[in-house]
Design brief:
The complex is a heterodimer of chains A (518) and B (132). With 518 residues, chain A is of the alpha/beta class. Chain A contains 21 helices and 16 strands. In chain A, the strands form four sheets. Chain A has a five-stranded mixed β-sheet, with helices on one face. Chain A has a five-stranded mixed β-sheet with strand order 13-12-16-14-15. Chain A has a four-stranded parallel β-sheet with strand order 8-7-6-9, with helices on both faces. Chain B is elongated. By secondary structure, chain B is α+β, with helices and mostly antiparallel strands. Chain B has two domains: 38 residues, no CATH class; 80 residues, Glutaredoxin (3-Layer(aba) Sandwich). The longest helix of chain B has 12 residues. The chains are: A alpha/beta (518), B alpha+beta (132).
Amino acid sequence: MATTVYIPRDSSAVSIGADDVAEALRREAQQLGVELHVVRNGSRGLYWLEPMIEVQTQAGRIAYGPVRAEDAASFFEPEFLLSGEHRLRLGPTEEIPYLKNQERLTFARVGITDPVSLDDYLAHGGYCGLEHALSMGGAQVVEEVTASGLRGRGGAGFPAGIKWKTTLGIEAKQKYVVCNADEGDSGTFSDRMIMEGDPLVLIEGMTIAAIAVGATRGYIYLRSEYPDARMTLNLALDAARRGAYLGGNIRGSGKAFDIEVCVGAGAYICGEETAMLESLEGKRGMVRFKPPLPAIAGLFGQPTIINNVITLATVPIILDRGGAFYKDFGMGRSRGTIPIQLAGNVKRPGLIEKAFGVTLRDIIYEYGGGTASGRPVRAVQVGGPLGAYFSESMLDVAMDYEALVAKGGILGHGGIVVFDDTVDLAQQARYAMEFCALESCGKCTPCRIGSTRGVEVIDRIIATRGAEKSESVELLRDLCDTMTGGSLCALGGLIPLPVMSALRFFPGDFGLDGGTKT
Amino acid sequence: MVILRRVQDTLGWVPPDCIPTIAKILNLSRAEVHGVVSFYHDFRHQPPGKNIIKVCRAESCQAMGALALAEHIKRRLNCDFGQTSADGAHTLDAVYCFGNCACSPAVAVNGELFGRMTPKRFDEVFGKATGD
């Protein structure tokens, strides 16, 4: 009987040699006449162990990692032969504490199934949510999503059910569902993991949204930096069409819906929903004024549901298990789970899906194991390039929309980047302004011009002393105030967060009193 | 944008001569088409070098030594970000996140992504991919 081996096709795993490992194992098996069935699954998100392979045994899946192509032969030695003791053996995958101590709802199948196999998806509970949705009315589906407390996971945290209800209530010839897959925040990769590791759950989520509000066309706006995700999405779309889960008559319900993948062209601002709509219409990605809300007049002026990948990929489990089930996870007004992406200078980077409420400290030390360099943690940026920098002493804050805002930060898309004590926060603040200058769409003056002036003012703070320095600090505060209040969207409006938090919590790095420069 | 992408995929860049043609087909002004080409970082206004090297400069990669790595690569390619080396062999682009943050720092050589990059590994990968 053939032995099944799982080797991730996830682009991160491939970037450190997963394809080479798959090729070497296949070659070795062929030479030895061993029957090997290789499944290219998604990543489990234990990235420090990647490339991690799993061997199917009677006792379940056993993980090994990190595996290099040179290790292939060792898996076929007579005393081992794909089972038994091996120096890279990690034990049963599900028992690895990093994974075992998570609450995987959205990521329930990622790393387990073959991402582009409809059969595999169905065998692991796929499309149960859609079956339920088809038996309910649109209003009932929207009610279920509202009851679950699901909020936008892209960063804004707006309740998904309320958006859907708005679109549902409007009469229009054409409605759209647009998935925001322009995951531009540095330090985030959960959207990519879903699209590469379980694209059908996203397709199912979009289909449910479409059925709920009466939309017939869907678009996935994908960033161009994710070519592998584009390929897996298209393969999964074909599989769904073949199974009549997309098309003119979804599962015999008489309802029509289909999805197209549209690729961006390298503009961070197109992750902002109205800029994304402009880009989808083939224009420059300039932010639009709101109102009208996209839910009322969005793509081509028609009512449009726009949600992030994770939000939409969470809808199927809500429809499958019920809003109340999902709402049971989490704390306060942040219900359910959040896929946290841990990256930067950290020993065990990866994806951690937990109920809201877990603290930053637990994530960074219990899961992450501290810094990769072995030096002390000095700063942590939460929520992407627009998120605040926190100092080590502030890490007891919970991962929760409101708790982070109370501390002067944002949850954003759930990315955490850890820095050790070699970081210079004045340079990070300068980088934030530089990034804003590069990516500003140019619509609002505070963002377009303020960001360039911001770089100059920070340079002056670093270079000068005495009265000139304190004047420049005042100027920077004033500039940040203007940007916060005078920008339409989150780019200009939130870039002051990393800048001002760096200044506030790490004044020493700017050569100011109240801190020590490292 | 689909048209522009196809032009770039075929020619490697978007030559200014093609803008009036695209504008005519789509019944747009030349300024509108030029506006789109110039807005997006992906579209090139000059032909690129034979090899395209992209280096992530965002926070997670910075935390793992991307700045030193970028300096090494600039020296190795003999050009700065956004430039092509004088002999037309290599183009160096800055990217703000490949979503490979858990395997930082990240570099792509001719479209192939590499994680956990070090100057030494870059030289190996680069040599293998370009024969340089």
